[in-house]
Each structure stands twice: as structure tokens, then as C-alpha cells.
Amino acid sequence: MDKNSSPASPWIEALEMWWQALAPSTPPEHRQVLRKLIDQGKSYFALNGEFLKAFQQAPKDEMLPEEWQKLWENGFATLKENFENLYDSQKHYAAWEAPLNDWQKTAATLSLLPIDHLRDFQKQNSQTAHEIFGAHLQPLLNVPKLGYTREWQERQQEMSQLWVQYQEAQQAYSTVFSKIGIRTINLMQAKVLAIHNSDNPDLEISRLRDLYNLWVECGEEAYAETVVTPEFAEVNARLINTLMAWKRHQRLVVDEFAGMMNMPTRCELDTLSLRMQQLRRENKILQAEQDGSVLDEVRQELYSLHDEVEMLKHILKKQQSSSPNNLLARLNPTCVNAPKKTPKKPAPDAETPVKDTTKGNK
Amino acid sequence: MLPFHIRPDQAVQDMLEFNKKLGDGLKVLSDIGEIEVGITPKEAVYQEDKLVLYRYKPLVDNPSPIPTLVIYALVNRPYMVDLQANRSLVRNLLEVGQDVYLIDWGYPDMADRFLSLDDYINGYIHRCVKALCKRYGIEKVNIIGICQGGCMSLCYSALHPNKVQNLVTMVTPVDFKTPDNLLSHWAQKIDVDLLVDTLGNVPGEFLNWLFLSLKPLRLTGQKYLDMVDSLDNKEATKNFLRMEKWIFDSPDQAGEAFRQFAKDFFQKNALFTQKLIIGDKKVDLKNITMPVLNIYATQDHIVPPDSSKALKQLIPSSTDYTELSFHGGHIGIYVSGRAQREIPSTIGKWLDARRKA
User: Fold this and answer.
1) Is B296 helix (H, G, I), strand (E, B) or coil?
2) Which domain holds residue B74?
3) In a domain? residue B8
4) Which of A97, A340, B42, B74 is most buried as measured by Cβ atoms within 10 A of its Cβ?
5) Does any domain span residue B340?
6) B141-146 and B68-71: which strand pairing?
7) Which residues 171-210 of B have a C-beta within 8 angstroms of A?
8) Residues A18-51: tens digit of each pLDDT
């Protein structure tokens, strides 16, 4: 077997081929869920493959403790080495691809341009965004802008810089996940050792699925340790903020084009929407004033306050009767002895006719 | 003891078994048809913009004379409270004699971008409450606020205490800065103004990503693998697909409302510190004088229990405060079997004991 190939690779390929053959015949409404099941199956096989490769030499009951110890240490060292290699080449361990993939997909929906092309760019280049920027882009972007289109050139330069900042933020985010991956392996090693030292036969891992579940447990533990730190909050926010800054600049550029073509810009539409919303609010207030509902509300509030005052008077009266020297009663005897008078409340209006509006809400 | 004992033939068997289950499951999925949600019969009684106020058909002859209005979060769709016949908070509330109404916020688009929390609370919610009061000839209604809808219900009850008979809050965050509030921890450094100014409305996909990031390996990996094990069971598969549908059915968030919620609630913790302003009025939780039932889930990874329990100290004027702890998670509180037995009956009894038409 090729040193770098995983024993699970043929399984992954077979699963993908099977899916490619069957996908067209699956119900479209469930295709997305099925795709997720297939992807997770592939991650599952990939994870198993890495473990089987790392622990090619199966442990035996008759092994000496030192042999056993060496076997596990070598196995986990291989796992970590592979992980670090993967990290260096900008790829990630299959099980950790899901959250990163999710971000890529989310970012794609937030952008005017498909973001996935940037991912391919990353895969094809082992250099970091910072290195690429420093070596190739920065000198070009530093060239002074001249002539009639100077402002336009500056805008392009700014967009490129914002893009690079987003790439750097994405890389920092990926690096955190790589560290979580390594921490996952360390935790797994500790748990395997704990199982070894335990006498409980139920803990023994005899199925691939148990191995996967242990991996998930360790992964979530490592993740939970990391994401509560201020550093992660910083990296996470930077990922979002830099994408937003880049996208906002794109929008400004698009607006400029739209303006040149005498088309409404996003900025203008926003201004209109804002004014419309303000008008609608004013309209609702006027309507409420006109149909008397504001007056009703004030009246009801008055009744509530009146009830409260009556209740307080009642309490005071009781206090006064139990203690004749009550200071309040001596200061203002009319207050506690005032006659009870409840204003008449308006009769409720008739039921409002309603129409069925269940359809067409989405 | 050997911790690993995976024989090569067993490993091959495991992988073959997985493939077989997937293959068999494909047939089940092909036959399963469309996934239905929100099954309890209902009628629309009020509509405004994209909002629809529904009344669920009562299941008893003489339901409670005071209607109960369910206010769900703006995030995700409200049919979570009526997912399927045997997992429905609404249906169970109807069975215990409540008269249940629910606000469906709809799907905001760019025309709704400037809807603020003031528009939602003092506008939409207030007009729904007024519509109900008019319909029944009463002054006050019961409110059940859920999650973010619970925050809005608290604001509403503080701003309009004379319109709320009894208030029930479910998995409602109040203190947004408890140490275990991961979402809040992440939100502190996000430039919310830049986000909203750039995107306008905040896409549902973005919020999904945030929620799934709370437990990525379990929520984006393990649960699908676990599902493969149950794919041969049509009912289990349907349940799973219903939940998937709900999770990814995420409306975009009206930009201005999102801006205010993210900044004032998450970043400034203004509801807890009593500095929240909605419209031009201060939200003073001391105005909440009506009875309050506060339900929280002990294993909630989105709204930590301490975040909900913080309510007690903020509403000293409510002399009738009850707390209910549910052993489960943020979603389990609506859909788990135990929740069906415990939550609606408790709410029903609590409301009935405080009925005052």
C-alpha cells in the first residue's frame, strides 16, 4: 500500500461512485439530507482509515507493557504527524471539515462572488495569504495611482487589501481548528490509556463505530476548551468582520456601476425603505389616534391606576384600624376615609370579522 | 485490558454494514413523500404585513375564557411548537383546555429591513394583543414567550402591564453574560453595525452556522451517522427529517431588529442591567406585576439555565413568581416525550389557577 494512502480510500471512492449513480433517482426534497449522510459516511471511513493506518500492528493480549506502550505512542505519534502534515498543506482532517465547509457555504451565500473559488485557490497554493500578499500583491498595490482614474484604482487597491485581510482571517480560523484536531488526538490518547488501566471490559473498543464516537467525544471536548477563550472569540469575529468589510466594499463598487448606468443603487433603495418604514410608523400612530384606541389605552391605564390607589387605600385603612396612632392617618385623615368610587368601564367592542390569510406567506 | 480490539474482518464488516444500511435507507427515503409540519388545525384571525395571527381549533367544549398568545422567536419557524401530532406543545395545551393563539412572523425580506424591535413589540405584538382583547371583550391576555420571543414578551409585559394577565417564559435568556453563554461570548467582538449595514437583513444561513458551531462534530457529523442506523424505520426517519426541515428553515432577520437585539441584549446585556430602551421608552422590568411562570431547560446549550433564572431578581413587583426546571435541552423542551407529559399540563394548571376573567 502507498505510504500516504489510507486503507479507507477505496471505500470512500466506492461510496461516492454509488452516490453519483443513484443521486439522479433520489427524491429532490431529500437529496440534501442524503448528501449529508454520504458525506458523513465518507468522513467516517476516512477517520477509520487514518486509525487503521496508524495502528497497523494490532495489539495482542500477550504483549509486554513496554511493547504495548510503544505501540500506542507510535500510533498516536503517526496520527499527529499526519495531522500536522495535512495542516501544512492547508487541508484538514476529514472529521473537522464539516464546520469549515459550513463556513465556506455560509460565506458563499453572503457574498456577491462565489467564495468557494478562494478555497480552491488555497488548496493550490501552499503559501499563506500573507506570503502571497507580501511577495506579489503588495508591491503592485503600492504603486502610486495616477491620472484621471486615480480614485477608481484606489478603490480596487482597497478591495484587494480587504480580500487579503479576509484570507488571513480565514487562515487564522483554520489554524485554530488544526490545533483543536491535535488536542483531540491527545485527549483520545489519554482516554485510551484510561481504558487500558481500567478493568471494565465494557469499555473496550471493538467496533469502528465506537472508535468514531470516542473521536467525536474527544473532538467536542477539545473544541469546547478552545471556543470559550477570548482568543477564539477574536479569531471568530475577525473572520466575520473581515468578510463583511470586503463585501461592503464590493457593494459600494456595484453601486457605483449601477449609478453609472442610471439604475437605482442599494444605497438609494435603503434610503427609500427607511423613509417608507418611518411613514408607516407615523401612519399607524395616526390610525390608532383616529380610531380612539390610544384614548382607550390611556383610559384603561387610568382604571388600573385607580384600582391600585383603591387597593392602597384599603391597606392603609386596615393598618389604621389596627394601629390608631398611625402617622399617615393623623396627617391626612381624608385620604384613608375617601368614599370608594370606580369609574364605569367601556363595553367591549363587537368581534372583528377576519379573513383567512393562511396562504402565500413565504 | 486492551483498549482497542478491532479485527480487520470486523472493520470490513462494520463498513459493509454501514453501506447496506445506507442502501436500504435510500428506499425508505424514496417512499417517504413530503414532510408535513404544523399539523393541528388552525385558522388565521389577524394579518398585518407578513405576520399572521393563528387561532388553533379548541379541543374542549369550553376552553379557557382568556386566550393564550404564543410568541415565538424571530429566529427559526414557530411550527416547532406544533411539529407533529405526538410532539406538539400547542396540541397538548389545547387538550388541557387552553385557547391557543400563535404569531407567525413570516419570512422578512429587504422591504422589512428597517423593522425595529419597537415595530415588533409595540407594533405587531401590541396590535395582536389588542385584536384578541377586542375579539373576547377583555382587557388582558395570557402570553407564552419562547426563547427570543420570551425576551420580547418580557419587554411587552413591562411596557404594557395592563394587557397581560399571566406571563409564561420558556427557555428565555435574561442575563446574556453568564459565563457559559457561548453565543454571547462570540458576539462580543463582532462588528454588528458593519454586519447589518453590509447585509441589510441577516441571512438565516449565517445564524444556522452560528448555532451549528456550538457543537459542530455532533450537529454536523455524528447525528447523520446515527441517523443511518435508523433509516430502516420509517417513523424515525420522518421524525428526523421533520427536525432537519425545521433546523434549516431559517428566515432572514430584519436588519434593524437584529442590530438592536445583538447590540443591546447580547453585547450590552441591557435587559439584565435595566438599561434597555424600546422605541422611546425604558423597559423597566419592575412594571411586571402579573404572575410569571419561568420555564428553563437544565441542559440548554443555547440559553444557559442561569441566564433564564436571572429573571427572578429583576421582577420584585411580581408577587407570584414560579420557576420550573425541565431536565432536557433547548429543543427537547418542545419535542421530547417527557416534555409532552410535563410542560403543557403544568402550564395549563398554572394558568387555570390564575384565571381571572
Assistant:
1) strand
2) 42-353
3) no
4) B74
5) yes
6) parallel
7) 182, 185-186, 188-191, 194-195, 197-200, 203, 205-206, 208-209
8) 777 777 777 777 777 788 888 878 877 877 777 7
